[in-house]
Amino acid sequence: xxxxxxxxxxxxxxxxxxxxxxxxxxxxxxxxxxxxxxxxxxxxxxxxxxxxxxxxxxxxxxxxxxxxxxxxxxxxxxxxxxxxxxxxxxxxxxxxxxxxxxxxxxxxxxxxxxxxxxxxxxxxxxxxxxxxxxxxxxxxxxxxxxxxxxxxxxxxxxxxxxxxxxxxxxxxxxxxxxxxxxxxxxxxxxxxxxxxxxxxxxxxxxxxxxxxxxxxxxxxxxxxxxxxxxxxxxxxxxxxxxxxxxxxxxxxxxxxxxxxxxxxxxxxxxxxxxxxxxxxxxxxxxxxxxxxxxxxxxxxxxxxxxxxxxxxxxxxxxxxxxxxxxxxxxxxxxxxxxxxxxxxxxxxxxxxxxxxxxxxxxxxxxxxxxxxxxxxxxxxxxxxxxxxxxxxxxxxxxxxxxxxxxxxxxxxxxxxxxxxxxxxxxxxxxxxxxxxxxxx
Length: 440
Hints:
- By secondary structure, the chain is of the alpha/beta class.
- It has helices at residues 2-9, 44-47, 56-68, 80-91, 107-122, 139-144, 182-191, 220-232, 284-287, 302-317, 320-339, 370-383, 407-425, and strands spanning 23-27, 30-33, 38-41, 99-104, 126-130, 159-162, 201-206, 236-240, 264-267, 278-283, 345-351, 354-362, 367-368, 385-386, 388-390, 396-399.
- It folds into two domains: 2-54 and 319-434, Aspartate Aminotransferase, domain 1; 57-317, Type I PLP-dependent aspartate aminotransferase-like (Major domain) (Aspartate Aminotransferase, domain 2).
- The protein has 13 helices and 16 strands.
């Protein structure tokens, strides 16, 4: 079998597999395997395919530019497409007159730049990030992360990780809103007073909506209070938009829901419509700091920049932010209706088309249903629905479809999800099937 051949030649450190899907072709929001079976895609290749698979506008832009410049290094030369993309990105963010852009290949390497550049340029050696966060796989980006999949690694020093506002499982055992956003007060009253004095903190860096940590949507006031705390103390505020950016949440950037003006914004995944490219949009005094301190030979390649320009244009022209909001509302409503009859669903949360369904064995104790989550994900695949699971306890089904999905796709996916959940709850699934597919 193809997937067994893969395990013989491709290293396991490269794997996060949930089922033996062997892809042949992808189009729009549907996937076809090598046997011709078709699936609804509720994953979008980990939120990369925002504009759908096989998007002609992106393909044409890449092919045209790559035929002209198959190799190119922005580090030593100039190109109109690279400049145009930087200008376009700046036009999308607040206070752009004080910002510049640098490019990378992935979320990992661009977040690595945050880790390297901020302490160096500010001469402040501490960075605050959040438990449950996932910022990447390079040494710097996994040092910023607080995800359990990287917990066994030995991260670099200087990064202080604090609790994210995971209200369904508050680490402080408090209730919102009576807690008065204690997670921000905790930083001010304890972290600043002990392991990370405010004058030593260069940046607070976080996901506007925490994705791999469990698709956690923070309370409305959280970002505002944390942002103001940073501004009072001369600390930069940085957001990782690698997964939730480019219209996924119903706005172009996730931070736009919270009325803040981040100093640094990192983007990747859907940025190139499938072409590997990433960027950091940040304050000039840091991104202009003397020395070639964070660069890569072919980052900012004109073909990738052309893909990203086409992606942004397609999102704007087709109002994919509005579609994400509309389809997200339909998806969440449908999932909550399913939850009314399925006690195994403890929480449904999301914004736009990033949605988390947290499974529990008991709604009162909130004991994570991790095994059942793996079984559900596999059973959905058997029935024709592609998705994945995330979370601190591997018990949150993550739903991130391509933003081109329509009502038919949402409803078909919901029907499959409901049937798969019923099969798991009623014991009609052989759990031994998931043993070779550990996922997160």
